[in-house]
Amino acid sequence: MRKKVVLISLILISSIVVLCILASEKSDMFKNKDRLVKEVSENYRDLEDIAVHLQDYDANTSFYLSSTGADLNSEMTGRLYAVYNTDKDPDNYREEPVESRLIRKAFELEGITEIQKADKAVVFKAGGLTEPNGEVFCGVYYALGGKPLIVEGFQGKLLKKDGIGWSYISDKKYSRYYTEKIEGKWYYYEGVAYP
To answer: How far is CA 159 from the centre of its chain?
Structure first.
């Protein structure tokens, strides 16, 4: 009996520690909302140009900058890459360098870590935390049709009006997604997904 109590106590303490770490990371990341909204407002025209330019790319194309020190060849550091995944199989993709000052400019915005051309949006990801117990994410997107969308984590689910934005909350209440209009076709999004 005592072993069971100790085991349950250890599990509870471990769970609390993991939740505190995730809550801390989530709290820091969701502080990005004001900063991201400000970035969109201050760089509206440039971001519109970037979003329109990216509409010419295939859906499921992602862009990222190689990070400092991540490449063994220092010439590659800071290069802009496109990752093409045409059949939606995560193991079947090709990666190639891209020369585009316009796309590179998007990475000058504070917090933008990846840009993805999706079917109905151009998504500017601004961070995320993936753990074995779930993931937390946020960013901004340009909705090609001008309507709020689920752009990460819960595609195919329906949004419901929620205050000044729209949300999806899973049946188990562990996972949620929220999006809010910034201006024009620009929206902020955030989500928490637990299995």
So the answer is: 17
Q: Mind listing the pLDDT tens digit for each residue in 2-42?
A: 665 444 544 434 434 334 344 444 445 546 788 888 989 99
Q: Which DSSP helix (H) or strand (E) runs through 16?
A: helix 2-30
Bridge partners of 123?
116, 141
CA end-to-end distance (rounded Å), the chain: 30
User: Pairing relation of β-strands 114-117 and 94-97?
Assistant: unpaired
Give Cα 41 to chain centroid, integer Å: 19
Q: Which residues contact 26 (CB under 8 A, 6 or more apart)?
A: 129, 136, 192
CA atoms of 31 and 27, how far apart (whole Å): 6
Spans of all domains in the chain = 29-193
